[in-house]
Amino acid sequence: MSIDETVIRRVAALARLHLGENEVARLTGDLGRILGYVGKLGELDTSNVEPTSHVVAMSTPYREDAVTTGGDPEAASANAPRRDGHYFVVPRIIE
Predict the structure, then answer these.
(1) Which of 12, 56, 64, 66 could make an S-S bridge to 17, C-beta 3.0–4.6 Å?
(2) How many other CB atoms are found less than 10 A from the CB of residue 8?
(3) In the beta sheet, which residues pair with residue 83?
């Protein structure tokens, strides 16, 4: 993919950035060089490389699911600024 000033201006508009002419020209060159480098990485033979998501091996600890009562409703709503029984009272946002 090639980067030209039209693409830079479009991305800047989407990001709500106001770029000057010098910035557009500089970013066009910078992003063009970055994409060229990424293109070179695509030329590497990675057929013998195992896909990874982390550089080091990681494991996710699991725990058994346990059925609980859900806790004490009184304790759950104890710090609420306003409540009605065990319900939180909040300002209405939908008419």
Answers:
(1) 12
(2) 21
(3) 88
